[in-house]
Amino acid sequence: MTIEAYLYCFKTLTRSIISDQEMLDLYRRNKNAFLHTRLSEKNSFTPEENEHVLKMIFSEDTFRKKLNKKKRLYDRFTARIARCAFEIRDDRFRDYIILHYIYDIPAEDIAEKKNYAERSMYRLGKEARKRLASEILKTSPKPKRSKREKHKRYSVTKRNVLLCCSSRVNSGKNRRAHIPPERAIL
Q: pTM score, two decimals?
């Protein structure tokens, strides 16, 4: 995943949390008024079926759980971006990352506050994203090796290796390679 995709996911998550919070507030105020009017029209469900449909479509508890899950994910995103931003030594890049991505301030406003030209702020943002990407890669966990890749890292090439590791190694009977026991790597 590129840094642009990573930051795009972060921004969409923040917008999703804001819209979900607004939906939850509307639901609490109106108690599903739109759905009630829509389902109470002619050729619709019976009142008992309406209740079941409303529970399936929108349950406040499940919606709140999903919203809390998104908020926890947002907190992890924010903490990781902030941790990586504080690893960047240059204040200009660090400030840009924190102001633009965490506080969601547009680049034009940052340029106005920091007394930069807008064009230089975009250039600064590009370099800040590069530095943030390198810091995120440093802090990210290493990917697990698959079956085919497991042997590549630890394969021993250009060495004479003793393949049998029994107690009778030095006797010469269990060796598969013609190596004297002094040169064998155990």
A: 0.63
